[in-house]
Design brief:
By secondary structure, this protein is of the alpha/beta class. It is built from 17 helices and 13 strands. The N and C termini lie close together (7 Å).
């Protein structure tokens, strides 16, 4: 069996972390059969993406960084397409791997498919059914540009079938004859790995914040819909400010810079109230391992993050979702996550329910067995290495 060249395209810190599951599986199980190239578009400039970040998480540094940076959707995506095309032409990979739903995902799908490089989409089939979200457009376009589509959940797999993808397709697989899979979630692979790493490398972090295990609530708010709509942000944070006092509940909030800016410039009196509340710990953005440890050791989670919703399930924590909809509908159907939007009445009701009676919830294995990356790479090898010998 010949060796194949696999190109990972990422654009933001969460995607680098997702790609690390593939990189780790290549290193541990497939190093003699797969050569990996990592391309970082630089979609999100993050000063924390230093050598310390990669060393701490034991992640391979990108081979190419396009340094695109922030811009309007069209300009940013076009610059990424141009840069990715150049790397594709020089590296000539056998397969291109994409993750999730960012502009980098879309740019990679368009650049690779137009140059006839087979695209593999990890986290395929996720849908919020809200096309006002840029991420929804990116998901749909990337799926329909792919040759292999790996759906992390049964709901995502069924979404692909509803859009015309056929599970009965036979090889050879192409963009016109794609193959869809139900794989489980590579972030579950990562959670198992990074939870142990966090306990080992961040043992004193909880003590630094004076936190006791299973005795605090974790909240993250970063989506533009919540941070830029001041009425929503005000409703969420005022409600949490009141609830912490009513329940004597410690609340930890690692604040995204966008959230901090909105508070300081448009909700300054509320910001002072939050800072004056001894039960609320507002902290700067935390590292990935620190966030992992907070998720693992908290009592309950409130978030507008898609990734954190899943991680709440991995760590068996009830979750209030500060959005109108979610891609992870199986969590809502299961009752371990609930959509509360920015509605003070819903937030209060579900906070009370989960805070007082969250221990009896069930957490089925929606996301696989923690070996999704190995499964994905085995399929890639079977279909692309053997077929081209």
């Amino acid at each position: 069996m010949r060796q194949i060249k696999l190109m990972n395209i990422v654009g933001a810190r969460p995607q680098i972390i997702k790609a690390s599951a593939i990189s780790r599986a290549v290193r541990l199980h497939f190093s003699d059969r797969i050569t990996e190239i990592i391309v970082h578009t630089g979609q999100h400039y993050d000063r924390e993406l230093s050598d310390v970040f990669f060393d701490e998480l034991e992640i391979h540094k990108p081979h190419h960084n396009l340094g695109v940076g922030s811009s309007r959707h069209g300009r940013q995506t076009s610059m990424m397409i141009t840069g990715i095309e150049e790397v594709l032409m020089s590296e000539k990979p056998d397969i291109v791997l994409l993750y999730g739903d960012t502009n980098s995902t879309l740019a990679g799908a368009l650049a690779a498919s137009k140059l006839h490089f087979p695209v593999v989409h990890i986290e395929a089939g996720l849908r919020s059914f809200n096309k006002m979200m840029p991420e929804e457009i990116n998901r749909i376009m990337s799926d329909h540009s792919s040759t292999l589509l790996f759906a992390p959940t049964n709901a995502a797999f069924k979404n692909l079938i509803r859009e015309g993808f056929r599970p009965e397709n036979s090889p050879p697989y192409t963009i016109d004859n794609p193959k869809i899979y139900l794989t489980g979630d590579i972030m579950y692979d990562n959670t198992l790995f990074f939870a142990e790493l966090a306990e080992r490398k961040k043992a004193g972090f909880l003590d630094q914040l004076s936190l006791r295990r299973d005795d605090f609530v974790l909240a993250t708010i970063h989506r533009e819909a919540n941070t830029d709509d001041i009425s929503r942000l005000d409703a969420i944070l005022r409600t949490l400010n009141i609830l912490t006092r009513e329940y004597s509940a410690t609340l930890v909030m690692p604040l995204h810079p966008r959230t901090t800016n909105s508070l300081k410039t448009k909700l300054e009196p509320l910001y002072r109230e939050l800072l004056d509340n001894p039960l609320i710990k507002i902290v700067p953005p935390v590292s990935f391992l620190e966030m992992t440890l907070l998720e693992k050791t908290c009592r309950m989670i409130l978030t507008d993050s898609g990734g954190v919703q899943k991680e709440s399930h991995f760590f068996r924590k009830p979750c209030l979702v500060l959005r109108k909809e979610t891609e992870w509908i199986e969590l809502v159907k299961n009752g371990t996550a609930v959509l509360v939007d920015a509605d003070p009445v819903k937030i209060r009701k579900e906070f009370e329910r989960f805070y007082n009676d969250g221990d009896g919830l069930g957490y089925p294995g929606f996301y696989g067995d923690g070996r999704a990356a190995e499964f994905i790479l085995n399929e890639i090898l079977e279909l692309f290495a053997e077929s081209r010998e």
